[in-house]
Amino acid sequence: MGMASRSIGLTEIGEALKKAKSRWYSLHMAAASHAIAQRIPLVDFILEVRDARIPLSSHYQLLSNFPPSSLRRIIVMNKTDLANRSQLKEWTKYFEQQNCISYGVNSHNKENVKEFLNFLQAQVRELKRTGHSGHATTMMIIGIPNVGKSALANSLHQLGRISAAEKGKLKHATVTPHPGETKNISSLKIGSHPNIYLLDTPGILPPQIHDSEVCSKLALTGAIENLVGEKELARYFLAIFNTSDGYKKWERLSTHGNDKSFTGQDVEGSSGSKLDMKQRRQYPSDHTQDFMVNRVRQTLLESISCLDGNVQNEKDLEELIEAQFTALREAFLVSSEPGNDSQTKISAKLLNLYRTGRLGHYTLDPLPL
């Protein structure tokens, strides 16, 4: 990430979070922090779930209160489907060099979660082999809000129960799109022979975060919500997007004669475009439809191609982002009538496409030097 992309949007986001102070640290977070801290020394394994897009910025600060030698910690990089694949491999190597066990997972991919469960069971067997004397093994899954802890816990529970051929009512951890919604610590069985229990916990942020860039990344990925305006976050994303090279794979679309869209479907005018045309008629302004995503990608690509300047120059980058907002209004079919806050609507749609991986895969944290 270049210097220009780091500065665009950071000032506004930093100021917004300064005004908010520690409003993200609610009373239930404080109570949960105390309860989790009491249990950490009592469990056999700690599964620290981080967002694979921000493997450092999403670290769980509460763990710094415990000596590393006192914990059997596994760093779980979730949402690998949204991160840059090659950079994810570099992060795995980095954690290995730091003598940390790490594992990349996509909690919505059943096969991926199954492999992760096998990995955890192997860790437990190794623990038993070295003389661990308990009948059951306990693991605690921890992390900041919205890194997918509860979704992962539920997937592990379902797979563990099926593999053990156990009957009975499934016990679900609460999963919501809003950070900090898991209120209590709950126990889920994820394995038998040996018995493995997983404690699912609420997402916890530290009372204060002094680094404005870390705050910005947490807000962009959704760990901190409702404290920063969507327009500021969208500008921050566009700065990252414009100074990365992820869009270069889209350049083939600017050549005529290619009748395939970004998703591999036929585009309008080709023999297989009936489904696409039907979607256009039924969902003309739904930004999640493939044809709309393609239009947005094409718009962003063309705006960069037309830039008469350098994206590493902050002034040129500011001008490019303003031009992109103007072009995206048409791409998203957002009205520019007076009283209609078109920039907020554009920003919300753009952020949704980024957060669901429709505009590329980004790892926002650089590897430490």
From TrEMBL:
Top-level division of the source organism's lineage: Eukaryota
Chain segments carrying region Disordered: 258-279
Entry-linked Gene3D superfamilies: P-loop containing nucleotide triphosphate hydrolases (3.40.50.300)
All residue ranges annotated as the CP-type G domain in the record: 32-207
Family matches, as InterPro entries: G_CP_dom, GTP-bd, P-loop_NTPase
Compositionally biased residues, Polar residues: 260-273
CDD domains: YlqF
Keyword GTP-binding listed: yes
Keyword list, A-Z: GTP-binding, Nucleotide-binding
Protein name in UniProt: CP-type G domain-containing protein
Organism: Salix suchowensis
